[in-house]
Amino acid sequence: MKILICICTYHRNKSLLECLQYFNQIQIPFNINIKFLINDNSINFESFYIIKNFKKKFKYTIHQINEKKRGIVYARNKCLKISKNINCDYIAFFDDDCIIDKNWFKNILKIIKKFKADIVTGPQIHRYDGKKNSNLRELFEKKNKKNIIKVGWAATNNVIFKKNIIFKENIFFDKKLNYFGIGEDQLFFSKLYKLGYKIIWSKDIKVYEKIHPHRNSSKWIKSRSYRLGILGHYIDQDLNGKLSGFVINYIKFFYYFLYSVLFFLVIFKKNNYYKFLNLFFRALGRLVGPFIFKKIKFYKK
């Protein structure tokens, strides 16, 4: 199995090096061959010499590219296009600040073989200084009771998929979502799921991410939940058509709003205040999404 690991980065050279260094330390099954594609999204290609020097002591091949057009959608699409000319069977995406689990590759082999999966994903576990710690971003993470389950979409912080899917379906990340900074991966893999491709989530396909302090605030929850609400409207319409998507959007609006009321009634309990904010602002985003989506730009250069 030949895997191309794509990592998009922007002004995070230290965490990128930590991410790459860990691959040097783990054992990868003999029947897996990996290569890396590092896409620097900065204008001046600031990671070029750092990675060029790092390659001298790295076990694996690293391809370096520079997508000057700012935004994660442009960066990821550039990776997909470049992959066409790189010999690989699968493409994986990780964030530039993640640490992969030591058994990730071994477990990937098992799941792809057992379930004949086209796409495999798993949890991103948040850590601080090497120790597990609670943080507010967990409000937005998938919580599956089963160890292995078929799901409808995946996130690019931890995913692997068959390369031939991309060029067979001619599918790329939606440029309209570049300004959101989130959700383009949800729509991308939701479309593949709708086309009949099998997506498997496993608790054993895990990566670890540092906790970012700015994400532990009520202000951040409000902003992210509001964006997710507006984004949800767009995704529903893209997948189901304008009319059906419009109806589904407002059904979800009532769901989030009523659910937020329940948490408001017991807001004094631990973490219920943050759960209320998440649900209420997501409902608010759903409410206004159909009317302001084309006007709003969350992303700033």
Please describe the structure with a list of short key phrases separated by commas or semicolons.
8-stranded mixed β-sheet; Spore Coat Polysaccharide Biosynthesis Protein SpsA, Chain A; 2 domains; 301 residues; alpha/beta; 4-stranded mixed β-sheet; 12 strands
Would you write up a description of this structure?
By secondary structure, the protein is an alpha/beta fold. The chain folds into 2 domains: 2-214, Spore Coat Polysaccharide Biosynthesis Protein SpsA, Chain A, CATH 3.90.550; 218-292. The chain has 9 helices and 12 strands. It has helices spanning 13-25, 48-54, 72-83, 104-115, 163-169, 184-194, 218-240, 242-265, 272-292; strands at 2-9, 33-40, 61-66, 90-94, 98-100, 119-121, 124-128, 131-132, 148-150, 158-162, 199-202, 207-210. The strands form 2 sheets. Strands 3-2-1-4-10-6-11-9 form an 8-stranded mixed β-sheet, sandwiched between helices. A 4-stranded mixed β-sheet has the order 5-12-7-8. The mean pLDDT is 90.
* Domain tally: 2
User: What shape does the CA trace take?
Assistant: globular
**CATH 2nd-level architecture of the largest domain:** Alpha-Beta Complex
**Which segments are poorly predicted (pLDDT under 50) over 5 or more consecutive residues?**
none
Q: What is the CATH H-level superfamily of the largest domain?
A: Spore Coat Polysaccharide Biosynthesis Protein SpsA, Chain A
Rg, please?
20 Å
Let me know the average pLDDT.
90
What CATH first level of the largest domain would be assigned?
Alpha Beta
Largest sheet: 8 strands, mixed
DSSP summary: helix tally: 9
- The third-level CATH topology of the largest domain is Spore Coat Polysaccharide Biosynthesis Protein SpsA, Chain A
- Largest beta sheet: strand ordering: 3-2-1-4-10-6-11-9
Beta-strand share of residues: 15-25%
Class computed from helices, strands and strand pairing: alpha/beta
The helix/strand order is EHEHEHEEHEEEEEHHEEHHH
What is the first-to-last residue Cα distance?
A: 39 Å
**Quick one: how many beta strands?**
12
